[in-house]
Design a protein that fits this description.
- Catalyzes two sequential steps in the biosynthesis of coenzyme A. In the first step cysteine is conjugated to 4'-phosphopantothenate to form 4-phosphopantothenoylcysteine. In the second step the latter compound is decarboxylated to form 4'-phosphopantotheine.
- Keywords: Decarboxylase, Flavoprotein, FMN, Ligase, Lyase, Magnesium, Metal-binding, Multifunctional enzyme.
- The protein has five helices and twelve strands.
- The strands form three sheets. An eight-stranded mixed sheet has the order 5-4-1-6-9-10-11-12, with helices on both faces. A two-stranded antiparallel sheet has the order 2-3. A two-stranded antiparallel ribbon has the order 7-8.
- The longest helix has 18 residues, at 211-228.
- It has helices at residues 35-46, 74-85, 129-135, 156-166, 211-228, and strands at 10-15, 20-23, 26-28, 50-55, 66-70, 90-93, 100-102, 123-125, 145-152, 171-176, 188-195, 204-210.
- Ligand PMT binds next to α1, α3 and β9.
Length: 232
């Protein structure tokens, strides 16, 4: 259908930050507001898709027609993603997942120690959610198209291409998060889209624009990849 090109498709999107507890009152996190991921969810729903949105702690209303699952930690986001992504057509990882969590979250509030100037926290790696979903494509049944984001402060294209390859993604949306007014927390964003089209590398530069418009362009490009790729 012309205006509903995503009708019949199930799209799973992660959004927002994750929050990794240090003790009952403190956590590690980042500045993701969820705006970009929620804009993607709204755009996919407007184009007719069934949308599952897995969100870290954010302050945003759920877009119309979107099924939302709220999580806090990377491990919870991982679990929800695995559950939903095995039956979807398109998985988009827009969440700013904390790469590390405390090796053990303290049971009680960590006390300030007299006479000690420093405090050393032991961190361990969180699972790489999107790389794990991308590996599903090798298993029978689960084969979503996998689109990642790359948030970089320098060497945007080189780092994004590295993530595209290393995480075995089909497409990556690279955004420079060092530009004022774009990226984390902002209403606007700009991106460089990189994908694998089978015959060499693609690429497209999307200038600064409202996240709602950028989201629409990303979803449309992903739908293009979905229809052009070989059926499994
Ligand atoms: O939420 P907003 O305020 O609107 O800001 C939007 C944004 C800047 C957060 C968004 O556009 C963005 O860039 N999201 C990805 C942020 C990020 O953490 O990028 P990364 O380069 O660290 O991760 C690369 C990819 O791997 C991402 O698809 C990420 O979701 C995924 N990842 C990373 C680590 C991890 N443990 N698991 C993952 O799935």
């Amino acid at each position: 259908a012309g205006e509903m090109p995503a009708r019949g498709l199930h799209v799973v999107i992660t959004a927002g930050p994750t929050r990794e507890p240090l003790d009952p009152v403190r956590y590690l996190s980042n500045h993701s507001s969820g705006k970009m991921g929620f804009a993607l969810a709204a755009a996919a729903a407007e184009l007719g898709a069934r949308v599952s949105l897995i969100s870290g702690p954010v302050n945003l209303p759920t877009p119309a027609g979107v099924e939302r699952t709220d999580v806090e930690t990377a491990r919870q986001m991982h679990e929800a993603s695995r559950r939903l992504a095995t039956e979807c057509d398109l998985f988009i990882g827009c969440a700013a997942v904390a790469d590390y969590r405390a090796a053990t979250a303290a049971e009680h509030k960590i006390k300030k120690r007299e006479g000690e100037e420093g405090l050393t926290l032991k961190l361990v790696k969180n699972p790489d959610i999107i790389a794990d979903i991308a590996r599903l494509r090798d298993s029978a049944g689960g084969r979503p198209l996998v689109v990642g984001f790359a948030a970089e402060t320098r060497e945007l294209e080189a780092y994004a291409r590295d993530k595209l390859e290393r995480k075995r993604l089909d497409m990556i949306v690279a955004n420079d998060v060092s530009t004022a007014g774009l990226g984390f927390g902002a209403d606007d964003n700009a991106a460089l889209l990189l994908w694998r089209d089978g015959e060499g590398e693609g690429g497209a530069s999307l200038p600064p624009q409202p996240k709602s418009e950028l989201a629409r362009a990303v979803i449309e490009r992903a739908l293009g990849c979905l229809t052009s790729r070989p059926v499994h």
